[in-house]
Design a protein that fits this description.
mainly beta, nine-stranded antiparallel β-sheet, 11 strands, 0% helix
Length: 135
């Protein structure tokens, strides 16, 4: 069955994209960082070292000012990455805040969170999986 064979029951299919605009963020946030909302209600770099720090909202796609960013929650990013491998899945890092890695965390108490996969070598498809705490 192809896309063309699917009955149009709910209207035409569209690309799912969710971007939160003009979100207050930490000055340390860079484009490409994965973010969570910290206890001060500011978007900050997420880290898979605990359940609290790994509660990812999305990825900083653009910085409007040093403390305001646009956060991609779902969908394909602009070409903001370099050398992604489209054959691999990427996880939130438990070592570098905001970063992604192809190696999921293995330490007890750290969190395994798939954050998506490359759409190409420069674009990333943001799609969070469930958070699993290592025992």
């Amino acid at each position: 069955m192809s896309y063309q064979d699917v009955p149009d029951l709910f209207g035409p299919a569209t690309v799912a994209n969710i971007v939160l605009t003009n979100v207050t963020c930490s000055a340390s946030v860079s484009v490409g960082d994965f973010l969570f909302i910290n206890p001060s209600n500011i978007a900050d770099r997420a880290l898979a070292d605990s359940a609290a720090n790994s509660n990812v909202l999305g990825m900083c796609e653009t910085k409007v000012t040093t403390t305001v960013c646009n956060i991609r929650v779902l969908g394909v990013t602009a070409s903001i990455f370099a050398s992604l491998d489209p054959t691999l899945e990427y996880y939130l890092s438990d070592v570098t805040p905001g970063a992604i890695t192809i190696t999921p965390p293995t330490l007890s108490g750290h969190v395994v969170l798939k954050v998506g996969q490359p759409f190409s070598d420069t674009k990333f498809f943001v799609l969070k999986g469930p958070r699993l705490v290592r025992e």
